[in-house]
Design brief:
Elements lengths: L14 H21 L6 H6 L46 E7 L5 H8 L8 E8 L2 H20 L8 E7 L13 H4 L2 H22 L4 E7 L3 E3 L4 H6 L5 E12 L4 E6 L5 E2 L2 H8 L19 E2 L14 H5 L3 E3 L6 E5 H5 L14 H11 L4 E11 L3
Parallel strand pairs: 1-2, 1-4, 2-3, 6-12
Antiparallel strand pairs: 4-11, 5-12, 6-7, 6-11, 8-9, 10-12
């Protein structure tokens, strides 16, 4: 008999297909249940935010599947209860560690994991450019983050991690080219440093939370620091404190490993620099370290004492302080209140300064001082 038009012959379901379907349903149910109960310690659960719109400095619990999302709670914060002291470890003070990154350096990440400050008190923040190198760096960074936050012991997991992508024109990106010689050319400095300032500001305002006590800026190419970097810098109890950034290299003359200064943006101003600035137009910028504009400033990079001269007072020498008028961003510890007070990284000529050097000037105008530690060293990657 002919089958009526449009009739459909039903076939008996294959048992293997049914088994796969049941397994898939069970997997989805397990995923929903597990995602609603994150594996945090009681201390972390107590600090967890109650809503996704809460500040990003704490993780939040997801609502159960199908549950109606409650309206955001009214959050009240008493910033007078946020301490910023010389003993951050004992006072359980929260650290916001921020890094603008264009390419991923495994040595930077390994050094980050060696920091002895409790990771559950550290929030990490990164901003990366939308370039080919930036895309590669983002993938590598996310691999490391996923491994640490899900597979490492809980003591090694960070409080939370924020990854941002910058929307700057790649041609203006401060990290569009990572060749050291090219990116430090004087002709590129104004656009590069202005773009870097915008990236820093975007990262800062997106991550600074009401419980943050300190902000540590750490360059993505800083590959070696003392494990107690945070505690060592905070013990000075200064609004802004910066160590000396050096670079290890092979000295062909002595045929041995050696070190040399790297960051020349930590300086004490000079009369010559002030005279140069006074003759500049309103949009001109004074850059340090170029023969075309000799400033004769006192550079902290050259104030470091040789290790061979260490004596019984070496510990005090390690923490010797000098007042600074300009700072670099290789490693920079800032009390969060300095940023809350309005000290940012100017992307425009501010007293003929940009970015981190302009930040030091802006902070000083707001009444905050910066100190440098000439004998306390961190090390930059040697290209």
């Amino acid at each position: 008999m002919a089958r009526p038009l449009g009739a459909v012959r039903l076939r008996k379901a294959n048992s293997a297909v049914l088994a796969v379907g049941v397994a898939l349903v069970l997997f989805v149910l397990l995923l929903v249940i597990s995602s609603s109960t994150p594996d945090f310690s009681p201390a972390r659960k107590a600090a967890a935010a109650l809503h996704p719109l809460s500040p990003p400095t704490s993780p939040f619990r997801k609502s159960p599947a199908g549950a109606m999302l409650q309206p955001p709670p009214v959050a009240r914060y008493n910033l007078n209860n946020v301490t910023t002291t010389a003993r951050p470890l004992e006072n359980r003070e929260n650290i916001l560690l921020l890094t603008p990154m264009a390419r991923f350096n495994p040595a930077y990440w390994d050094n980050l994991l060696r920091l002895s400050y409790p990771h559950e008190l550290i929030t990490l923040g990164f901003i990366l450019p939308r370039t080919r190198e930036g895309n590669l760096a983002t993938r590598e960074l996310q691999k490391r983050i996923a491994h640490v936050q899900t597979q490492a012991p809980e003591r090694d997991r960070f409080k939370s991690v924020v990854v941002l992508r910058e929307d700057l024109d790649p041609a203006l990106s401060p990290l569009a080219s990572q060749d050291e010689r090219e990116r430090h050319q004087l002709a590129r400095q104004k656009a590069r440093r202005a773009a870097m300032a915008k990236a820093r500001n975007a990262l800062l305002v997106s991550t600074l939370g009401p419980s943050t006590s300190w902000v540590l800026w750490l360059d993505a190419d800083v590959v070696e620091t003392p494990p107690a970097l945070i505690q060592d810098l905070a013990r000075h109890d200064k609004p802004i404190v910066v160590p000396n950034c050096f670079q290890r290299f092979y000295n062909a003359r002595t045929q041995a490993m050696d070190e040399r200064p790297y960051d020349f943006n930590n300086w004490i101003d000079s009369d010559a620099a002030r005279e140069l600035a006074s003759a500049m137009g309103p949009d001109d910028v004074l850059f340090e370290g170029y023969a075309e504009m000799a400033t004769y400033r006192t550079l902290m990079a050259y104030l470091a004492k040789d290790d061979d001269n260490d004596d019984d007072e070496g510990e005090r020498d390690l923490h010797e302080e000098v007042l600074l008028d300009g700072v670099g961003g290789a490693a920079l510890l800032v009390k969060a209140d300095v940023h809350r007070d309005g000290a940012m990284f100017p992307a425009f000529p501010f007293y003929h300064l940009l970015e981190t050097e302009g930040f030091a000037k802006m902070a000083k105008r707001l009444g905050w001082e910066a100190v440098g530690l000439p004998n306390y060293k961190v090390y930059h990657y040697n290209e």
